[in-house]
Write a structure and sequence with these properties.
Elements lengths: L17 H8 L8 E2 L2 E2 L1 E2 L10 H13 L10 H20 L7 E4 L2 H16 L17 E5 L8 H10 L2 E5 L9 H7 L4 E7 L11 H10 L3 E5 L11 H4 L3 E5 L10 E5 L1 H6 L10 E4 L4 E3 L13 H17 L1 H20 L4 E3 L11 E6 L4 H10 L2 E2 L1 E3 L4 H6 L5 E5 L6 H11 L2 H4 L5
Parallel strand pairs: 3-15, 5-6, 5-7, 7-8, 8-9
Antiparallel strand pairs: 1-2, 4-10, 9-10, 11-12, 13-14, 14-17, 16-17
Helix pairs in contact: 2-10, 3-10, 4-5, 11-14
Length: about 450
């Protein structure tokens, strides 16, 4: 059955029930298939989520009814395409508590981080004029990240430090998978120009204290960039209330298609940043020696945009909004605790990050003594259970925790309690299967 909206209406702020999750699953055709003779148990939403029918229909409808270049043509179809494209921007911006002119379309969160890093680099070269002077950094300045960052929120800052002569510093991670806030208070200081950190770790599940870190950075006039890839899809996020200067997230982790993400930036900051990519659609006047650029967000959207993907992402946001982000968050918190508590009971399994009972997002990464993560993943796949294995693009964090790879199970609004229990039951069989005694 084709549905254009979630299978139930939003209720009070209580966790989604098993019956509601069962109805939600009707909107996700991919979940009906079998893997290796078993019903698919998809526990890899932390990497890429699945798409409801309404999202796929939104993209298809665009190509069937409105396909045209946006912000360019003067014909009816082009106006219709531009209208729905910009309406998508309004929808997604409102979802995170931003204004439409504060939301820049990107291909993914990685591009969003790189956009800011390269724009700061351009400002540091003197581009952008007086309005960009506040972003200039160089020798003697410091960029601060954390030891738990995804490579996408680490390597761009490494490269910026190399280009500008700034120093890159990091806030350490404690044994329990939380940030060393005492160390942070000594690392962030007068020389700090930017603090970049993840809202929630994609490995250990830790939810970082955004307010405390933002206050610390702003105390010294530093900018803050928040990697919200693991929170915008799973928790209510209000960037204005958080007071972050920039934030990034990806569509494919929040029921949307691949190839679309977004950068949030405070309006006054985007107005001062010089562009990263240049070309068509982001200019006002061009001659052979000079160009003038549009105001944000179009200043940062050179070339043909991800039109159908943006529209589909807005449909995904509608689905999540209708379901209720608070209800999703409560449901996933329950599943996350069930994962951690169940894994902790299995001999030889070490859960990474906060212990059971401590707040985390709905995922759990772990190490099985004597069994490589890839072998664990292959064993689970034979049972139809899809998990993530490897370093999860967070090698420094794994190194800090004393391992090279881990296995990660991650949930979403369509994950059932039975699926979590099926996964835990299979995990009890891993060590015996490989002949490992705990």
């Amino acid at each position: 059955m084709t549905l254009s909206a979630p299978s139930f209406r939003r209720a009070a702020a209580v966790a989604l029930t098993e019956d509601e999750v069962a109805r939600i699953r009707n909107d996700f055709p991919i979940l009906e298939q079998r893997i290796n003779g078993h019903p698919l148990n998809y526990l890899d939403s932390g990497a890429t989520s699945q798409n409801p029918i309404s999202v796929m229909e939104a993209e298809q409808e665009y190509y069937e009814q409105r396909n045209a270049a946006v912000h360019r043509g003067a014909h009816t179809l082009a106006f219709a395409a531009t209208e729905v494209f910009e309406s998508a921007r309004e929808t997604v911006a409102a979802f995170i508590g931003a204004q439409p002119d504060e939301l820049v379309w990107t291909s993914n969160a990685t591009e969003g981080v790189n956009l800011v890093a390269y724009a700061i680099s351009n400002a540091s070269l003197g581009l952008g004029g007086p309005d960009a002077a506040r972003f200039r950094i160089g020798a003697g300045d410091e960029i601060v990240v954390t030891e738990m960052e995804h490579h996408a929120n680490l390597i761009p800052w490494q490269q910026l430090a190399l280009r500008t002569g700034a120093t890159l510093r990091f806030i350490p991670v404690l044994d329990d998978g939380t940030l060393d806030l005492a160390a942070a208070a000594t690392i962030v200081g007068p020389r700090t120009r930017l603090l970049a950190f993840t809202h929630a770790s994609n490995v250990v599940g830790t939810i970082n204290p955004v307010a405390e870190l933002v206050e610390l950075a702003h105390r010294f006039g530093a900018l803050v960039l928040l990697d919200a890839c693991q929170t915008v899809p799973h928790l209510p996020v209000d960037v204005a209330a958080l007071d972050v200067d920039f934030a990034v997230f990806s569509g494919h982790k929040m029921l949307g298609p691949t190839g679309i993400g977004a950068l949030f930036g405070k309006a006054e900051l985007l107005a001062g940043l010089p562009p990263f990519l240049t070309g068509g659609s982001m200019i006002t006047t061009v001659d052979m020696e000079h160009a003038e650029f549009l105001a944000p967000p179009q200043r940062f959207e050179a070339g043909t945009q991800r039109i159908s993907q943006a529209i589909a992402l807005a449909a995904a946001v509608d689905y999540l909004t209708e379901t209720g982000m608070d209800r999703i968050a409560l449901r996933e918190a329950e599943l996350g605790q069930r994962l951690v508590a169940g894994l902790a009971e299995i001999p030889g399994v070490r859960v990474l990050g906060p212990a059971a009972g401590i707040d985390r997002i709905g995922l759990a990464a772990f190490d099985v003594a004597g069994v490589h993560a890839h072998d664990v993943g292959q064993f689970l796949d034979e049972a139809g259970i899809a998990v993530r294995v490897g370093h999860h693009c967070a090698q420094p964090l794994h190194r800090r925790l004393g391992i090279t790879a881990s296995t990660r199970a991650s949930t979403y609004l369509y994950t059932t309690t039975d699926e979590v229990d099926q996964f835990l039951a299979a995990m009890h069989e891993v060590a015996p299967f490989f002949g490992v005694k705990p």
